[in-house]
């Protein structure tokens, strides 16, 4: 360590420069937070997994021995019918768990990981106002989640179309749709999933600001989702199931029919937005008042 | 699950959740208050009927008769009756004569018996004050029922004009035609409606179903009282059937043919005789999986009723006698029908047509595998659009098929009575067994170019001829069916049914050409798949001749398949309630955001006083959530240009003070202000403070250089202000700067963190234990750095638990212990004290008395190996002289080190609890 001598001559009282140049609304710009997150291994692994999943599915279908012919189609038979069906299958296969984990990871890890690295206190003392820190981190987590949610159907479409052709989309209800509109429907399904998973995002964020353990925040959000899915299996609960946050997770299947069935998706969007509002507000409230002791 | 913790905002938001969540639920059925009264009613011919009257909460109300199916009793329609009563209808159910505990004999919905019974029940409703009356003796009444009960509903409505609405389900139009179907005719009726069947006379006996139904009636040997009167005992082959019916069945089962007497008997039990007299609005529900009463039966009823000016709505549901029983959806449709037509409640169900398209996909129970399509009207009825058909060419040469003597083995296409279990498992019933070899001829279409939804009964022209030299009776009994073939060779029998035909074949060898109506069905056919028509000589479900035969069969012309364009009947519109809910949620979010911004703008308005000491701590206290008092009433002020040491043992509360100084922890009491600005979470004045508190905090996956760059970028200040080079000089990391921080040693991280704190050359630098993990040369360099830093007019606060550290680095010191300030001043002040001195002597007691005698000395304190004295201006040399003169040996004399004493005392206390 060598003490510097370059500024020895400037023996002046503190200049007011810092006072003028600090602007709270300029702190933690999105591109900075994006770079901080994108260079993390876990972000790269998530994106790699999302890209790899359709390829794995395709390999699995190719390796699967030909089943003895039966008289009815299974969902897997349907999946290999066309690229669109393949993409729909990939989304069905991943929507209830993989995508929940991805969203919970991006949102649950974002603050808790900083706390575990102790870098949170330096950001807050920089100072990045707490609400702004949460907002910028939410924006970046949302961008990453949205990209992952759109990447999955997009890659599935490419893989599926190369492997099974640009045929019609045939839904489990037997309705069929041309390739062009089908692509729009599949991507719209991903957008619905993004809206629907906002409750997972808000819950993960709330847990993220409440704990210094990233695993606890991510795992907690995923656990709540799984418990809700299990409760949703109990048909005896009847109307009460409408209140479960995961109840409408398959509502995007309404996009596969012709015309589109908006009912479930509208209810799902309402349910998700209420949960997101309440949990998100709780996250902000909690983070504003929390003593940072990490 | 309650997501939020306690507190005002979460409570308010929970209320919002509850209100909006309520919008998610629609029309949960209110618990119904239904009373049931049982009564035995004696009819004019002396038969006792077992009835139940369901009374709704509010009367008078319109009434509905619910008739049960064959082999059932009033108990089997209890759930339907309760559902209708819950909707507010007076519901009357009864066990038909010959069933349950009702007496009498089964006459198959004969107008003179069962229908007369139902009319008598309507008479009784006419006398009840709790039933709405249209006119004296004319109650407002509807009638519904499935199968046997459905035919009763049609017959009652045809014979009794007092019926105001009816909803017959999966029932027959012509019982003779249903039990002895003949789907072939040389001169067929027009194919005007989707399932217009050919009702040729002299059909083929549907012995499988007929036997099952007959045994269901015969085995109805209830042990309840009243049944015994009619039951002639288990030995009676006629059971509870009338002698007439029993004889007709015996004859049909023996000959396999329908005699004129039987035809007449079944005709009387057929709604076909009276359907043209029905004027009440009729909801016809028929099953798509029904080999007993196919879609053609409802089709015929619909044509008859509308032909005479009546109005019908037709629904085909995914089920029937071979599939699922009418489900909740059908019950709702029927309820809505009566709601509108009897009570005037709800929307007009209209006179449309809907059918369910099963996809044939096996999926989990949560995934719907069918969709409902709706058309504005049943095609071909008066006033409705004409039926659309698609011709599909058929390929295949004339083929010879064998009818084995005795008709065995026979092809199995359906299992009467078991179909329900199988049918509910799969959307389409598959061909269970391959056709016995040589017994069927198949004609295929080319692969379809576009997908197609068959809806109705396809037709095909078939020619049958004798084969020279082969035996053959006068008539050919053949069975036609439609199958779907996919490119992998999978065959699916569509509709699960076959169309039997009895074709007289000329003896001279010329072919007989007939048009055949295949069973009515609904099936989606994917493009690339083929349709095939098979003509077989046997079928398990029917009586075929015993004589052996060889026939040559061929198809002429195309397969004509009906299609009914429809729109998906599922709710496609966006529901308004949830949409409004989303708008409300977004509005609340927007309002909350705006309110937050407003409050923050007010909170961050700059405080006028711009000047003040770099740091002023007053009355600061912090009690953590667990009740631990980390800091109690700490006050001190740091002036510009000094290096302040915050000295105290571990746990003295130094770090908590520094955390409050950084806005990370909220004080329980007191304030911290810097440069005259109060410090709270995110205060802008924090930008003038550089801090390193309680260890470094870096992103381990980034290099040291990237960490510093991104940290500075996160402050949002111009890169030129960072003075990165100066900070990096202090860090002195060399090439390691490009490595991931995760690979750094403790000391490297420590230096990098101090460099980060110095980024932007903050006016106040706060360092917590900065020399931890540094080696001696680095420690000494660090002291130099800090001194120079303060020399430039800036201020440094260093916390440490090491006295030497503070003594060598700082100009000022604040000593903390157990959350309180125990000493505060310049280092010299505290070290030198106000003339206090310490003498190391061999005889402390004597020395004390000597010193006490000196003029001006205020206080003397004897300690181990020496004395402390407050000399109060008396020179130390004079004191030494006095001691030596008194014979006391003085080993050392110097200023009393109060700081060290105080500190050691504190440390000592801490170490010996």
TrEMBL record, chain A:
Keywords carried by this UniProt record: Membrane, Transmembrane, Transmembrane helix
Spell out the residue ranges making up region: Disordered.
Answer: 1-22
Record carries keyword Glycoprotein? no
Q: Where is the composition biased (Low complexity)?
A: 1-12
- Show the stretches that span the lipid bilayer: 45-64, 84-107, 139-166, 186-206, 213-231, 268-287
Protein's recorded name: ABC transporter permease subunit
Organism, by scientific name, is Pseudonocardia zijingensis
TrEMBL record, chain B:
Q: Which SUPFAM superfamilies match?
A: alpha/beta-Hydrolases (SSF53474), Galactose-binding domain-like (SSF49785), P-loop containing nucleoside triphosphate hydrolases (SSF52540)
Membrane-spanning ranges:
576-596
Q: Which residues form a coiled coil?
A: none
User: Which ranges carry the ABC transporter domain?
Assistant: 615-843
Q: Under the GO molecular function aspect, what terms does this record hold? A: hydrolase activity
Q: Report the family membership.
A: Belongs to the ABC transporter superfamily.
Protein name stated in the entry: Alpha/beta fold hydrolase
């Amino acid at each position: 360590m060598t003490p510097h001598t370059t500024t020895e001559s400037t023996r002046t009282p503190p200049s007011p420069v810092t006072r003028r140049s600090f602007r709270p609304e300029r702190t933690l710009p999105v591109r900075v937070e994006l770079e901080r997150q994108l260079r993390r291994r876990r972000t790269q692994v998530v994106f790699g997994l999302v890209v790899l999943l359709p390829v794995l599915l395709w390999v699995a279908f190719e390796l699967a021995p030909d089943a003895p012919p039966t008289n009815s189609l299974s969902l897997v038979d349907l999946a290999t019918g066309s690229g669109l069906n393949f993409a729909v299958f990939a989304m069905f296969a991943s929507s209830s768990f993989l995508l929940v984990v991805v969203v919970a990871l991006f949102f649950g890890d974002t603050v808790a990981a900083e706390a575990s690295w102790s870098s949170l206190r330096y950001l807050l003392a920089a100072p990045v106002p707490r609400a702004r820190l949460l907002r910028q981190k939410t924006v970046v987590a949302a961008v990453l989640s949205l990209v992952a949610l759109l990447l999955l159907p997009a890659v599935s479409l490419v893989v599926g179309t190369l492997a099974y052709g640009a045929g019609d989309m045939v839904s489990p209800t037997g309705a069929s749709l041309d390739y062009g509109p089908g692509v729009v429907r599949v991507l719209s399904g991903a957008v619905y999933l993004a809206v629907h998973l906002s409750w997972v995002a808000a819950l993960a964020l709330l847990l993220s600001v409440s704990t210094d353990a990233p695993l606890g925040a991510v795992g907690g959000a995923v656990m709540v989702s799984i418990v809700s899915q299990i409760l949703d299996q109990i048909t005896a609960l009847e109307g009460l199931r409408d209140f479960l946050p995961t109840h409408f997770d398959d509502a995007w299947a309404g996009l596969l029919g012709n015309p589109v069935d908006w009912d479930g998706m509208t209810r799902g969007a309402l349910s998700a937005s209420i949960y997101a509002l309440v949990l998100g507000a709780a996250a902000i409230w909690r983070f504003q008042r929390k003593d940072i002791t990490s | 699950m309650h997501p939020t913790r306690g507190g005002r905002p979460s409570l308010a938001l929970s209320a919002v959740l509850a209100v909006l969540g309520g919008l998610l639920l629609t029309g949960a059925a209110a618990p119904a208050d239904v009373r049931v009264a049982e009564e035995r009613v004696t009819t004019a011919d002396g038969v006792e009927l077992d009835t139940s009257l369901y009374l709704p909460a509010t009367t008078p109300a319109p009434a509905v008769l619910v008739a049960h199916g064959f082999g059932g009793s009033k108990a089997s329609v209890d759930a339907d009756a309760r559902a209708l009563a819950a909707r507010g209808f007076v519901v009357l159910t009864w066990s038909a004569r010959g069933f349950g505990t009702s007496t009498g004999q089964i006459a198959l919905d004969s107008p003179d018996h069962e229908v007369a019974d139902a009319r008598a029940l309507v008479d009784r409703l006419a006398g009840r004050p709790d039933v709405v009356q249209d006119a004296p003796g004319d109650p407002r009444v509807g009638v519904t029922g499935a199968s046997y009960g459905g035919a009763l509903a049609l017959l009652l409505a045809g014979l009794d004009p007092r019926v105001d609405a009816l909803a017959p389900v999966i029932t027959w139009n012509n019982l003779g035609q249903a039990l002895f179907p003949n789907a072939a005719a040389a001169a067929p009726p027009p194919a005007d409606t989707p399932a217009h069947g050919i009702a040729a006379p002299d059909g083929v006996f549907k012995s499988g179903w007929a036997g099952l139904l007959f045994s269901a009636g015969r085995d109805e040997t209830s042990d309840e009282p009243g049944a015994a009167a009619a039951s002639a005992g288990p030995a009676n082959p006629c059971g509870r059937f009338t002698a007439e019916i029993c004889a007709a069945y015996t004859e049909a089962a023996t000959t396999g043919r329908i005699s004129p007497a039987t035809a007449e008997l079944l005709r009387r039990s057929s709604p076909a005789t009276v359907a043209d007299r029905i004027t009440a609005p009729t909801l016809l529900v028929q099953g798509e999986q029904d080999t007993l009463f196919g879609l053609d039966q409802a089709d015929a009823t619909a044509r008859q009723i509308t032909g005479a000016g009546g109005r019908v709505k037709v629904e085909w549901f995914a089920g029937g006698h071979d599939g699922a029983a009418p489900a909740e959806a059908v019950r709702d449709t029927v309820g809505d029908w009566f709601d509108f037509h009897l009570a005037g409640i709800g929307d007009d169900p209209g006179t449309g047509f809907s059918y369910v398209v099963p996809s044939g996909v096996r999926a989990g129970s949560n995934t719907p595998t069918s969709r409902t399509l709706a058309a504005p009207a049943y095609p071909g009825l008066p006033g409705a659009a004409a039926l659309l058909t698609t011709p599909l060419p058929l390929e295949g040469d004339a083929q010879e098929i064998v009818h084995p003597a005795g008709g065995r083995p026979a092809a199995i296409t359906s299992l009467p009575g078991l179909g329900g279990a199988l049918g509910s498992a799969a959307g389409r019933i598959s061909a269970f067994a391959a056709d016995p070899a040589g017994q069927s001829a198949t004609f295929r279409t080319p692969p379809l170019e576009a997908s197609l939804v068959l809806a109705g009964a396809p037709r095909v022209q078939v020619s049958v001829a004798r084969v020279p030299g082969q035996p053959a009776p006068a008539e050919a009994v053949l069975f036609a069916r439609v199958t779907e073939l996919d490119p992998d060779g999978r065959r699916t029998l569509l509709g699960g049914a076959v169309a039997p035909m009895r074709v007289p074949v000329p003896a001279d060898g010329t072919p007989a050409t007939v048009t055949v109506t295949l069973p009515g069905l609904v099936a989606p056919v994917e493009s690339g798949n083929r349709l095939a028509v098979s003509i077989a000589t046997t079928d398990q479900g029917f009586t075929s001749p015993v004589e052996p035969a060889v026939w040559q069969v061929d198809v002429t012309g195309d397969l004509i398949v009906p299609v009914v364009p429809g729109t998906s009947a599922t709710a496609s519109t966006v529901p308004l309630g949830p949409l409004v809910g989303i708008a409300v949620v977004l509005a609340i979010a927007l309002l909350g955001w705006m309110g937050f911004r407003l409050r923050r703008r007010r909170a961050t308005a700059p405080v006028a006083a711009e000047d003040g000491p770099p740091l002023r701590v007053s009355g600061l206290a912090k009690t953590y959530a667990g009740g631990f008092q980390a800091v109690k009433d700490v006050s001190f002020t740091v002036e510009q240009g000094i290096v302040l040491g915050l000295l105290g043992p571990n746990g003295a509360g130094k770090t908590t003070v520094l955390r409050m100084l950084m806005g990370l922890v909220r004080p329980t009491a007191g304030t911290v202000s810097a440069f005259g600005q109060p410090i709270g979470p995110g205060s802008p004045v924090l930008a003038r403070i550089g801090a390193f508190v309680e260890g470094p905090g870096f992103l381990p996956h980034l290099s040291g250089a990237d960490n510093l760059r991104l940290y500075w970028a996160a402050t949002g200040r111009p890169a030129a202000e960072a003075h990165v080079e100066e900070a990096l000089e202090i860090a002195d990391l060399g090439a390691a700067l490009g490595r991931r921080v995760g690979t750094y040693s403790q000391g490297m991280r420590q230096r990098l963190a101090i460099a980060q704190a110095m980024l932007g050359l903050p006016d106040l630098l706060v360092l917590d234990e900065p020399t931890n993990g540094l080696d001696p040369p680095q420690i000494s360099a660090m002291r130099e750095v800090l001194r120079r830093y303060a020399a430039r007019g800036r201020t440094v606060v260093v916390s440490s638990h090491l006295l030497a550290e503070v003594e060598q680095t700082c100009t000022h010191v604040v000593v903390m212990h157990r959350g309180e300030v125990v000493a505060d001043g310049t280092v010299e002040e505290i070290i030198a004290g106000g003339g206090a001195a310490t003498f190391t002597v061999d005889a402390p007691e004597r020395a004390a008395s000597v010193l006490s005698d000196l003029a001006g000395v205020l206080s003397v304190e004897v300690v181990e190996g020496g004395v402390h004295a407050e000399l109060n201006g008396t020179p130390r040399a004079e004191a030494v002289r006095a001691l030596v003169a008194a014979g006391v040996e003085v080993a050392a004399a110097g200023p009393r080190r109060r700081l060290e004493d105080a500190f050691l005392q504190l440390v000592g206390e801490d170490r010996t609890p």
